[in-house]
Structure formats: structure tokens, C-alpha cells
Amino acid sequence: MQPLTSEGFSFLISFSEDHSRALKAACARLFPHIKWRPLWMHTATGGDSLGSVSNLIFSDRAKDPWEAGGPNRACYERIVQGKSTEGCEEMKPQTGSPQSFALHPSAVRLFIRDGAHHADLRASDPNDSEELRRVRRKEREVMRKWIDEALGKEVLNVA
Which Gene Ontology terms cover its molecular function (predicted)? Predict the structure, then answer.
């Protein structure tokens, strides 16, 4: 179960015990052979131990409904309020925020103000924004660094 809303501005759907029981019953009727695992998404994505996972790039996008639950929530809120997003490009989660968690030192966080879901993973297009192009360059740079470190030498620089 992914506790997200589709409009992108609220992350966790608040569940009461009654709501949870009703949802479980509805799922059991629709999918009788599937085991109810309401916390599976949390477990499958590393749970609270995400800080021990290395070499990750988080590219959060303001036009992505999934971004609402990301650690760059402070940037997202600034966009919604029409405020400056200066400094959001490589922002770490704010300590004490509901979405804050410790990241491994090798993890990189990028913010794409005008990006949509997986925009940075799609093929380039002449209509791509300069910001999206910059993020793709940064992602390649970071991955090259990780490969260099793993191999202990410089590798071919591919644009």
C-alpha cells in the first residue's frame, strides 16, 4: 500500500483503525489470494535504515505527485507558496522535519523545479529545460565519481 495522494500536496493519508479494517476487507474481497501487508512499501524500500545504503541519487521534482513525500518537502512548500527556491538544487533534508532521515554520505539529492515524474531518466528532448539538462549532467558526474572510486582509477568520460 502506498499512502500517497494523487494531487501531490499531501503525503500520508491518515488512517484510523476503522479505515484500516475497511480497506483491508475491501482488498481481501478484490484480491483474495494476496496477503495484506500495509507496511510492505516501507519495508521494501529500506525502512528506517536508508542511511546505510550508499550511492543513491534522489532527484525530486516539483511536478511529481510522489515528491510530496520526499525529504525536499521544504522546497516543495516554497514552490506552492510562490517563494524563492534558491538553494533547493542540492538540498539535504531538514533535521527534525517529518520527512528527514539520515542519508549515507555518498547519497546525492537534486531538485528539479520544472520536472515531472522520471523526467531525468527519459531520453533527452529538444524541449527539455536547462535545469533538467543540468540535473542530468550532475547525475552523470556523480555516477562517474562512484565508478572511479570503485575501480580506483579514472574511467572514460562519456557525455
Answer: dipeptidyl-peptidase activity
